[in-house]
Amino acid sequence: MKRLSLSKDEKKALIYLLPGFIVTALLIIYPLYYIITMSFSNNAINQSGFAGIANYTKLFKNPQFSKAIVNTAKFTGFSVAGAYVLGYILALAINRRSIKLKGLWRSLIFISWIIPGVVKATSWKWLFRTDGGMFNHLLQSVGLISSEVPWLTSPKFAMWAIIIVQIWATAPYVMLLMTAGLQQISKELYESADLDGAGFLHKLKYITLPLTKDITFICILMLLVWAINEFSLIWIMTTGGQNTSTLSLLVYNQFKMLNLNMASASAVMQLIVTMFFAAFYVKLTVKED
Amino acid sequence: MNKRVKSIISDALIYIFLAFMVIIILIPLGWVLSTSIKQEVDIFAKPPVWITDNPTLQSYRDVLTGSGIPKAFLNSTIVGFMTVVFSLIFGGSAGYAFARFKFRGKKVLSLYFLMSQMLPLTVLMIPLYYMINDWGLIDTKIGLSIAHLVITMPMVTWMTKGYFQGIPKEIEESASVDGCNTLQTLIRILMPLLKPAIATTGIYAFVSSWNEFALANVLTRTDASRTVPISLSEFSSYFKVDWGDTMAAAAMITIPIVILFMLVQKHFVEGLTAGAVKG
Amino acid sequence: MKKSFKLVALILALVMVAGSFAACKKNDSGKDTADKGQTSNEQKGTEDSKKDDKGSATEQVTIEWWTPNWDEKESREMADEFMAEHPNIKVNLVITEWDTYKNKIMAAISTNNAPQLYTILTTDVAQFAKLGLLSPLDELGAQAGINFDDMLEAALDIASVDGKIYGVPFRHDGSGVWYNVDMLNQVGYNEFPKTWDELITMCEKIKQAGIVEYANAWPLGNQPNAVTRMVQQLYSLGGDVLNKDETECLLDSPEAVQALTNIVENLQNGYASPSSLEMDNTILRDTFGAEKLAFYIGGPFDAGTLESEYPNLNFASAVIPGKDGMGVTTSNGWTIAMAEKTTNKEEAALFLQYLTLPENQARLTDSFPASKTALEYEQFSTKYLKPFAEQLTKSKPEPAYAKWPEMEPIIFNYMQYALSGSMTPEEACKAMTADINAILQ
Asked: What is the total count of domains within chain B?
């Protein structure tokens, strides 16, 4: 085997790939190596003294960690489900043949995705004020609530408030991907179904959903990863208080507490959880190559 | 019931639903704008009102003359442009390689580029901080734009890969028959075809950098490099809680992004979906 | 052909630049673990050679001080004065913010070649020092002329670890009560109640009279502010957070349950504003200033703002009511500390000495200075500040346990459960004790 001999294509590819590869290696692989070493060190600051898995066993015993896991699961589960369902409905609505100004609807809805995360969080924080807050006022004026709800200041509601914002912020992305997916379904399929007299739900079940399966998976995995990694939204709205501390917030707050051993161990845990889902995403996306 | 009437009714219902959703989408931004033009006394009015009787631009004046926002605006623009240039050079050439060449390890490498898009920034934050500090680039615009490559590079690679794949290989092949080498083809033939795509990818990178908070929060120290999200988050901290000013600043950093997006929204949407739909 | 070659060359050049950065990093960290002193000398060397390149003759050294935004104006003045006196030293300021200062300082101070000086909470000194990130100042400070004998022992104690001083305190204070004189007069009070029970009676009278919607409020929207109030109640009742050797949490004691109950009932009985849950100390002060509250527990540093921003407000201060008389306040303050892994320490110590001179402490503090000489100044014995000075005689330092940064969010979290009614104070105290015991092991 002439292992080192490169084909003509490979030589060219190498030139084009190398710069990008080196930059990402420097900015991504090296930091990952660094944080993993830190998590196995006695003194994380100097990365000195091999601690084995001591930092991890300590982390697992810490009640804050199990709470962060539960919170991450809750935030991720509900926000992904909500954003997916809402985004899909929006996509179906916009994709309906008789609906006009498709581009306009799409870009208006897309605004909540495009605005800076800090603005998202700050504006919702301002909407969610308990006393004289606009969100409470709107709900009261349509009769959904009778007394003011302390959205961000009670452990009962804070997580739900943040989930609402995450759905609001990510549903447009689902809408976008799904409209693209729906447009790829050939019209003839629907036309022949119409001839058979199939209803909307029938078509949804037997044509639309199966044919958008792949893009659905990609979309959901993307949402999952974003939700697990979401930081600025929660940080600005509650700083992880009111029982809203997810893994991201735990890492940041441990770092703030000068607890680098714990911070690096929780970071590695977050990495493992993220990469678990990312692996599925990659498997789906790359299979064509 | 008549089929046509039925379809008109369901169309109407869909329009109502879409209009309702657009309202919900726009409520926070609307509330930001509404608060930003209120007098200080009206901001905490109970019940809250959407349209104030005494609008004022005082908050905007405060933000423009007495805050770090104008400087942060400049910083964000410069950091954004540098990020765009770096990620187009590095990510664009990688995207081209993925689209055009057959090579061993292609699968592994594309795995690597895809996975890196999903890394939690809170995980990378600490080591990146130490690294950028060792390079002496803490609190510099160039340091921050290098760090922002973490979030832009993978997606730019992926988007440009999609664009290059969209151009028939035959165009390039005919060019190479004419005696152009690969790079000449890239510059003379492909670039003009890809102008909108490059613009879209660039804007994607720019917006990502403009919006990024977690890294900028630790990598900046002073107004030499502080970007708009950081500047805004400092509005609502310890000693000043001026919601009017905060909202005026929020409006000012959001509107350019929304306008930029509206200008290129068609291409932008195509670019974002290209990677995911075509694979 | 040439064109394409240029492009490849450009890309390769960029890659090599990036690569050389990586190489730099490795060398640095290697040297650092091998010999810290050598690294700092070498770094100094490279800095000097840089200056030579520019052809400048003066050997100016640069030091950096991270100071909070509420001290910005005075900090800039003092830096300018110091630079005028020492033309060879250039002082750069980095302005920090309350919400993020600790994260940012943590990140900065743990790097090689860290910035030199930081204004931090006195109770944070021990945590940084135990990680080996602060320079001991006993010798360095004495050489620069810092007079540690003039500093309040209470403050210096918090800033010391194992008998070594790791920071120079310049501000030291505790809490007290601010009240609206007119509102209290309306319900027949000429002075503030002395005990907690009398305080509750007064709250009821204010509520009945209806002169103001809520008698008081608490800063329960902000973690450190809220936990401080709870700990003050606990200290006033004679309880403590941990046992002596910091192995067991005492927050399930009857005193702790009572402390939390005091705050929870104050809200549930409609005396304290429900907006308390969104307030921090600043919003609380502004609400009081706008005459929407009859009193609140706050700091001496509010005097200036209340006086200047609310000229029509008729207000006074008092000590905190406890079980049978004056309660106990927590005390804390602000300290300037120096990084361990840094350069130009002598110059930084000189600047530190200047900043903590009695007259400069008096300028820099928003409440009381930590210098005994400065404390005698007239500006610290006004009618507003006197009760705060009296209250300081019954004070206990804020918790500075090694695990405190991890404990504080736990306490705050369960306080929120109790305040929202999802848990009784007993349940909340039991749960926080269990969680804290888990991390103490």
From this structure: 2
